[in-house]
Amino acid sequence: MKDTAMNFIQIYDTTLRDGTQSEGFNLSASDKVRIAQKLDELGVAFIEGGWPGSNPKDVEFFERARDMEWKNAKITAFGATCRVKGGPEDDANIKALLDSQAPVCTIFGKTWTLHVTEVLQTTFDDNLRIIEQSVAYLRSQNRRVIYDAEHFFDGYKADPAYALETLKAAIRGGAETLVLCETNGGAMPWEVEKIVREVKAAVQHPLGIHVHNDGDAGVVNSLVAIREGAIQVQGTINGVGERCGNANLVSIMANLELKMGLRCLPDGGLPKLTELSHFVDEVANITPNDHQPYVGKSAFAHKGGVHVAAMRRSAQSYQHVAPEVVGNKSRVVVSDLSGRGNLLSKAEEHGVEVEGEEVVPVLNEIKELEARGFSFEAAEASVAMMLKRQEMYYKPPFELIDFFVNVEHRSGRGIFAEAMVKVRVNGEVLHTAAEGNGPVNALDLALRKALVPTYPQLALFHLADYKVRILDSDNGTEATTRVLIDTQNGTKRWSTVGASANIIEASWQALVDSVEYGLLMAH
User: Fold this and answer.
1) Dihedrals φ, ψ of 462, to 5°?
2) Is residue 277 included in any domain, yes or no?
3) 160 near 190, Cβ under 8 Å?
4) What are residue 259's phi and psi, to 5 degrees?
């Protein structure tokens, strides 16, 4: 470990700027404020709010941010060095940075000789001039300045001496941190390690690292740079960003504190990681990555029977950290790969009283049903009901006698469905019918009509999601269909499954499990 061992690593979040360059990831000014507040609550050092000279949305964010109280983070405005052959005093981009009133300005400049001659179309000396003058001018206006050396690693490979001169120009201007940007995202860890080590020896100035993920090495390259002495790491929550994304700060923060013994968040920050990760996805209206390390729903999910059996004896046997330290939790998944331990864990989770041998029939049934097309991984309520029905004195809230569904097309009315349900409730046979906009809807309404007088809480249940998957499409309309139903009651949500060559039967299986499980939960 290098001399960072006693340092507090600065977390620089650029979700609100670099992250929004990701396809499908869009934030309003209000969204940015909400996420910034969460980041401040977590305890990051810097929050890059946007590029105030580029769009009205970012201007609005800085207008709102300047009147807010920030407990941990410094709000940072992002921009570029001044124009070629011009000066910073009359540069519109530099003026926008100052007008944002952000206490910290981060500006990027060219490192790679290719960019200097082909993109900026200027001389090497003039590029050094605009770097130094831009930083110096912002410093003269009482702004802290972080300098992002764009394409640094490609530039260093092409011309190490000139790449270092660009950093020295920023130092002369007064930059507090030099951030080495791996902008194209293709460098390998050993390259980053070597270059950061050489730069640190050459410039003797605080360094940061900003890595993209095009080679799927964003996190490891960031950690390698920190091992070599970088004191600041830039990235985004959940790794969102242009092309393949930026380095994922969630994984970086967890690894720094849990694996490398380096502090990067205030006390109590790390357990907020899972909540923050899901919050950002929710605000951006994107589906969370269940398999994301540390914070994903599946990060501590255990499916294999051997794994679960070992976990029941020692939680450390198949978990690299305790999930609670990052605000996550361990889960047991039930499938045809399960053993007794999976079902015993699931029974404990749902408060079902069964002994070791009592789960064997359920385990055998699950394996048989999965061979026929069921999938219980995402249908834990169905598993809970299978276990509950093994209890010696369990009495179901209702019993199906039969049902009937009819779908018709009538002139002037179009398609409609009608269902009849006959069930036994507390010894009484109830016979009800209902119309719906489809056969499953009609079945649901007919069953509710029969049960609500006895179980009024059922009126609060509503269908949250209904998924259908064709399992063996080669069989055409004779294919087996899997139906997954999500039901919600307030903040409680549960999933059930059914499978059959008849989609109505598959739906009924999932529907009955859903209602029965919900009634048990309501007690």
Assistant:
1) -140, 150
2) no
3) no
4) -110, -30
| pTM assigned to the model | 0.72
Q: Tokens 């009819």 label which residue?
A: 406
Both ends of the chain: CA-CA distance in Å? 56
Q: Looking at the structure, do residues 101 and 200 belong to the same domain, yes or no?
A: yes
> For the range 28-32, what are the long-range contacts, defined as Cβ-Cβ under 8 Å and sequence gap of 24 or more?
28/57, 29/57, 29/58, 29/60, 29/61, 29/64, 31/283, 31/284, 32/57, 32/61
- Does residue 110 sit in helix, strand or coil? strand
- Is residue 288 one of the residues assigned to a domain? no
Between the alpha carbon of residue 376 and those of residues 194, 232, 303, 502, the distances in Å are 49, 44, 11, 19
DSSP 203: H
Give the pLDDT of residue 275: 92
Q: Total structural domains in the chain?
A: 3
Q: For the stretch 90-101, what's the b/e string if a residue is b when 16 or more beta carbons lie within 10 angstroms of its beta carbon?
A: ebebbebbbebe
Residue 211's CB is within 10 A of a number of other CB atoms, namely 29
Give the mean pLDDT of the chain. 85
Q: Do 349 and 498 fall into the same domain?
A: no
User: What is the SS3 string spanning 217-286?
Assistant: CHHHHHHHHHHCCCCEEEEEHHHCCCCCCECEHHHHHHHHHHCCCCECCCCCCHHHHHHHHHHHHHHHCC
Q: pLDDT tens digit string along 3-52? A: 444 469 999 999 999 999 999 899 999 999 999 999 999 999 999 999 99
Question: Does 326 lie in the same domain as 262?
Answer: no
Domain CATH for 99: 3.20.20.70
Give the pLDDT confidence of 58-101 residue by residue, as tens digits.
999 999 999 999 999 999 999 999 999 889 999 999 999 999 99
DSSP state of 194: H
pLDDT at 173: 98
- Whether residues 74 and 174 fall in one domain: yes
Residue 296 lies in a domain: no
Burial of 89 (0-12, 13-18, 19+ CB in 10 A): exposed
Nearest-5° Cα angle at 402, 494 to 484: 25
284 lies in some domain: no
pLDDT in tens, 443-455: 989 999 999 999 9
Phi, psi (degrees; rounded to nearest 5) at 47: -125, 110
Range of the domain at 514: 399-522
Q: Give the domain CATH number at 460.
A: 3.30.160.270
How far apart, in whole angstroms, are the C-alpha atoms of residue 464 and residue 481?
20
Token couple for 232:
């600041």
- pLDDT, one tens digit per residue, over 248-305 is 999 999 999 999 999 999 999 999 999 999 899 888 888 888 899 999 877 766 554 5
